């Protein structure tokens, strides 16, 4: 566990002059320049209206974070840089990179994938955080705390607290609006980015390990891990009376537990590799995404049996994530049924795309070739 990596000082001294970094300072100025360049680039490729729709809101939100939120997070040593937040940014970068690489072979340029990635990342974070705040609202708004007083904790995403399944509705709507706005095929876009989303999830789960959240139950396996005092697993075990102070008064680390975060990271990484390997075998656009939508909920159902951080929900023996997994499996079944009724684009549906039936592919002069 490494919750805080380092601190960034809130003021920098340049040439004998001390200037604020956050708030209305140097960082906001740099971000305004970077954001302006991003909008100009997007406008050149897709027009001003689409550029503002795709980039203006995320740029404005990040600007607000720099201007008002980061100064509020100063703990006296500076603004803490959390391991969870750094892994989240690395996850977004890695997932976008893989999607760009895949997009080149599927007819999507890098600017399109970048714009889509920015929208999905932003709205996915909004949904994941909103779900977490609703599920654990007592942590943010205990009795006696006003709404305004609890907002800084709500927006402090770098400290941890996202529910992956909460990102699905908002990210899906963002992708649908993006595809509709640009006249792109949503199933093809979904196939393109599905492995990247899983790669990002794998890296994000490493952030969960650094933060100590999403932990597993006690075990005596050789790879079991212990977490330090005041970490989420330690607090849960202490509340249950499983941890007692040592004879010299020091607080021991937690009991050995399953590294459920590492399990989840390995699982997401393997699913990402499987989705990439399955791409040449797909017969219709959307089948790679459907495969991910089928396998990920199944693995999540199994992983949740190891985790102990989520109690049973809605009077059932299942956690909220397991219940959502069952819903997603139903949606996956519906998606497979819908895909089975779609025509294969210019090929024999009995053979995969890129299979041996090369004669079924349209010739360069074929009117259906695009």
Describe this structure in words.
This protein is mainly alpha-helical and 370 residues long. The protein has 2 domains: 19-80; 81-239 and 253-343, no CATH class. The protein has 12 helices and 4 strands. Strand 2 and strand 3 (17-20) form a beta hairpin. The protein starts with a strand and ends in a 30-residue tail after the last helix.
State the gist of this model:
The chain has 370 residues and is mostly helical.
Give the number of domains: 2
Helix content: 55-70%
**What portion of residues belong to β-strands?**
under 5%
Order of helices and strands: EEEHHEHHHHHHHHHH
Distance separating the two termini: 51 Å
Structural class: mainly alpha
Widest beta sheet: strand line-up = 1-4
Radius of gyration over C-alpha positions, nearest whole angstrom: 23 Å
Describe the sheet with the most strands.
Answer: 2 strands, antiparallel
Uncertain runs are: 354-370
**Number of E strands:** 4
């Amino acid at each position: 566990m490494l919750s805080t990596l380092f601190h960034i000082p809130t003021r920098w001294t340049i040439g004998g002059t001390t200037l604020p970094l956050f708030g209305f300072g140097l960082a906001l100025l740099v971000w305004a320049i970077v954001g302006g360049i991003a909008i100009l680039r997007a406008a050149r490729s897709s027009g001003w209206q689409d550029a503002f729709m795709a980039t203006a809101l995320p740029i404005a939100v990040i600007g607000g974070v720099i201007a008002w939120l980061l100064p509020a997070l100063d703990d006296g040593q500076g603004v803490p840089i959390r391991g969870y937040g750094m892994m989240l940014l690395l996850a977004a970068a890695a997932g976008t990179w893989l999607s760009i690489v895949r997009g080149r072979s599927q007819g999507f340029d890098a600017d399109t994938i970048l714009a889509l990635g920015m929208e999905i990342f932003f709205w996915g974070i909004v949904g994941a955080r909103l779900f977490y705040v609703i599920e654990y609202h007592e942590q943010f708004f205990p009795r006696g705390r006003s709404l305004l007083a609890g907002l800084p904790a709500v927006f402090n995403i770098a400290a941890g607290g996202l529910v992956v399944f909460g990102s699905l509705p908002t990210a899906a709507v963002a992708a649908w609006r993006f595809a509709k706005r640009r006249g792109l095929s949503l199933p093809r876009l979904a196939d393109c980015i599905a492995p990247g989303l899983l790669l990002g999830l794998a890296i994000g789960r490493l952030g969960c390990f650094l933060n100590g959240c999403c932990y597993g139950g006690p075990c005596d396996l050789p790879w079991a891990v212990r977490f330090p005092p005041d970490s989420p697993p330690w607090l849960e075990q202490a509340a249950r009376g499983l941890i007692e102070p040592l004879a010299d008064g020091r607080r021991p680390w937690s009991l050995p537990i399953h590294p459920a975060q590492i399990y989840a990271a390995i699982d997401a990484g393997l699913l990402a590799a499987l989705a990439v390997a399955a791409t040449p075998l797909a017969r219709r656009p959307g089948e790679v995404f459907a495969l991910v939508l089928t396998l990920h909920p199944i693995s999540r159902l199994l992983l949740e049996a190891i985790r102990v951080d989520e109690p049973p929900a809605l009077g059932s023996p299942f956690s909220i994530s397991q219940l959502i997994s069952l819903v997603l499996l139903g949606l996956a079944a519906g998606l497979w049924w819908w895909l089975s009724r779609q025509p294969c684009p210019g090929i024999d549906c009995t053979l995969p795309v890129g299979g041996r039936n090369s004669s079924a592919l349209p010739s360069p002069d074929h009117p259906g070739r695009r």
